[in-house]
Amino acid sequence: xxxxxxxxxxxxxxxxxxxxxxxxxxxxxxxxxxxxxxxxxxxxxxxxxxxxxxxxxxxxxxxxxxxxxxxxxxxxxxxxxxxxxxxxxxxxxxxxxxxxxxxxxxxxx
Amino acid sequence: xxxxxxxxxxxxxxxxxxxxxxxxxxxxxxxxxxxxxxxxxxxxxxxxxxxxxxxxxxxxxxxxxxxxxxxxxxxxxxxxxxxxxxxxxxxxxxxxxxxxxxxxxxxxxxxxxxxxxxxxxxxxxxxxxxxxxxxxxxxxxxxxxxxxxxxxxxxxxxx
Lengths: 109, 159
Hints:
The complex is a heterodimer.
Chain A: H1 5-22, H2 29-47, H3 54-62, H4 68-101
Chain B: H1 10-28, H2 31-34, H3 36-56, H4 58-67, H5 74-99, H6 104-107, H7 116-139, H8 141-151
Helix pairs in contact in B: 1-3, 5-7
């Protein structure tokens, strides 16, 4: 394990290049369509009296929660990690056991 | 004066970096709990630990990249694709997060636009990186448990 300045520069440079290559994405027709559909759904929800207004949602995120709000905020990432993670552990073990228990091909005489 | 020196092997250093990276990642995955300013500042700290994590696995990355289209075990190939997917989703999440920043960029005197396109991309790829991280942790679960037993519980383990 050796962390050198050259390696750090390479990783950061590649990351920067990928980031710069991704920037024009916002000018594509896909981005325009996405913006249109998002604005449509948000204004539709606002008309219906739902929590569709993005400014309101962002403002609620800016408020620092207290008490139970802190715990419930961590529930989503915890579930996102626990459920697929535990399923993968089971599948990974099953695959490993399958290959370990599989009899080897007898050598051709 | 009696000076105490702490000797750590590379596995121990790796484990500590991974713990730090995971802790920061978990914290930034819940902006509802931390609030946006802390979420944004911690993201940069996480990104630093993420880059260090990549650098500590430099030998593995370069050796697998060289042999990617040659003979390679299925597990290694799967890990490589999974790690690349995680790296890519982290880049998109960071980039879109910077572009819709409400705390870091304004603090630096730059006004960011709240573009719904980057906002939805940020949500999509942050969820994807959570899922990919779950699989990444699951694949390395035995190593994590063994390292925990060895370095925290101070038990010797067999692989």
